[in-house]
Design a protein that fits this description.
Helix content is about 35%, strand content about 15%. With about 475 residues, it is of the alpha+beta class. It has an eleven-stranded mixed β-sheet with strand order 1-3-2-8-10-9-16-17-13-11-12, with helices on both faces. Strands 4-5 form a two-stranded antiparallel ribbon. Helix 2 (about 20-40) packs antiparallel against helix 3, helix 7 (about 220-230) runs antiparallel to helix 14 and helix 9 packs across helix 12. The radius of gyration is 21 Å and the shape is globular.
Length: about 475
Amino acid sequence: MTQNHADATSIAASVQGREVTAREVVAAALARIAAQNQVLNCFTTVMAAAALVDADHLDAAIAAGTAPGPLAGVPFAVKDLFDITGIPTLAGSKINAEKPPATQDGRAVALLKQAGAILVGALTMDEYAYGFTTENAHYGVTRNPHDLNHVAGGSSGGSAAAVAGGLVPFSLGSDTNGSIRVPSSFCGLFGLKPTYGRLSRAGTYPFVGSLDHIGPFARSVRDLALVFDLLQGPDLNDPACTDRPPEPCLPHLNQGIEGLRIAIADGYFARGADPEVFAAVEQVAQALGVTRRVTLPEAERARAAAFVITAVEGANLHLADLKTRPQDFDPATRDRLLAGALIPASWYVQAQRFRHWYRDRVRQVFQEVDIILAPTTPCAAPLIGQKTMVLDGVEMLTRPNIGLFTQPLSCIGLPILNVPVQRPGALPLGVQVIAAPYHEALVLRMGAFLEAQGIVSAPIAQLGTP
């Protein structure tokens, strides 16, 4: 495996072993970004000079005998809603470009730098994280590395495209209604949405406070586990962050699946999608020898509740700008935020009340099983600009319906791993591996087993060749 194709774990081992310098690794990543970003449009800011300085400092520290950290010399990038010292946090918007630069890195960025990783830039997204396609009126469309005519997914589209295209070995994104899992599925990557509150969001631009999560994208499960473990820990600067002590997942990756109770989600999660989506779930289930099925009750209402909560909280956050400068929003974002501002308070209260009821019902299901499998998206990545799609014989709008299978689950904050199913000659698809709250180790263990069996994988895309 060359350094260009290595995962983060391998790169760090090579830098630690002085087989290659951090400068060489970072310079190679910057060269790939310079060559491919003009096609993929996944970076809003490339921090070439700062990254090379950081790499030189790391090389000097290694030469002096200082332990460089578990991510020594690994280039990474973050969705443009993480604060980065010295640049404005755009969050995909025109309005935020007028704000002053961040004065310090977000907590997650700082922790990764402390572990030796080298930040190379900020990544594209839907405006204010409100979207599933990363077709941004201000900063353009982010293209899917597997087929440049298709979207990368969203709202963390740049985070997925940069990793799938091999520009960086891992990245960070955020997930409110599916914004890590959807682009992971469309771009053929591993993506982890942890339990709500498990990772601190301090130093990130918010969207929906009661639903926002952050998490990593990578091409191997061990990279996801490594990054997730580094980001764990209490943080008083995020009121939603748990005070549970870190529970490392990396040591559990190779424990296999013996004894795990696994089931496939039926009912809502078994209809309303392209047939190949369910075939991907069955492919994973067969590899695990799973035939049991379970029902998550009232998933349709859970999705509706997520829609209402998202629209109301998002609109409230941006109300002042919606009143005074609506012309400066991406129209696709603005119109939904304006609609959200008109939703009656009683709807929001009822949605939050239902959310608690639904959470308790799903917890009862997890008394019977440890892992649930479900599709990630109802289709493979749509074409850029595609307005409608047909699912189960019904024509519907594309953008709002990509999150059919992700929204009912993030609504109650479950830890979920997207595992990528590669399909020769066709775009990849994702399967959600779902567990009860705070059981990230289980979903990562399941992903590592499937990866070792060759059932799921995340190779670097050859640009434009599915």
